[in-house]
Please model this.
Amino acid sequence: MEYVFLESVDSTNKYAKENIKNLPDKTLVYTHNQTAGRGRLERKWSFCGEDNIYASLVLKPSSDMKEVYSNLTQLLCLVLSQTFEDYGVIPKIKWPNDIQINGKKISGILAEGVIEGWKLEGLVLGFGINLNTKIEILSKINQPATSLNIEIGQDVDKEIFLKKVLEKFCLLYDSFIENGFLLIREDYIRRAGFLNKEVTVRVFDKSITGIAKDITDTGALKLVDNENKEHVLLIGDIL
Ligand code: BTN
Model:
């Protein structure tokens, strides 16, 4: 594992993408101060103080795109969940890769690929974690949010948390690339907070409402709508 620490940066994902050619496989780019963090679906990721995690993992598994790479966010999501559990809380996964505790968001993942011509230069898995955020700051976020320090009633050591995440991720990574989502399906489903509930999923500019039935062997969400029609969604966001 290589580390690039930046005192301050607009976005660790943007930095990782712009410098991808010079960053070795398995490099973690992280910062104390992210000034223009980006989230999924063109959203922003707010800066909530420097004791939180703003990081991007650069991966270079091969120079051609494979389907399993799109599941890497789910691997990271599982690993983050397992790390939260080490602190005694019960995280719930919101497909595909958000994590909530008591219905409030605690972390988010933004995956981006850098492709030049036909060549995949690398993947960037950006993650933001509310580790030590003050309640006043969380209340300004435009969706229900929490932070690990609030859930456990004490501050959390950022370096120790990050080390746990990276250790767990590296332990599973090679086997995951080889075996795909199936390797973690059961562990992922055990933490899924949305199964057998009615959900609305946004897919680009459309939304589909139905009962979330299952997660397939390839990590897709199986949903049955009000007309009993089955949808298998590979991308989207539960609202
Ligand atoms: C989301 O839930 O919408 C994803 C949020 C991802 C935020 C992280 S923070 C570090 C990295 N750099 C960014 O600009 N975004 C990701």
User: Anything to note?
Assistant: The two ends are 35 Å apart (CA to CA). The chain is about 25% helix and 35% strand. The chain has a mean pLDDT of 96. The CA atoms of residues 8 and 124 lie 18 Å apart.
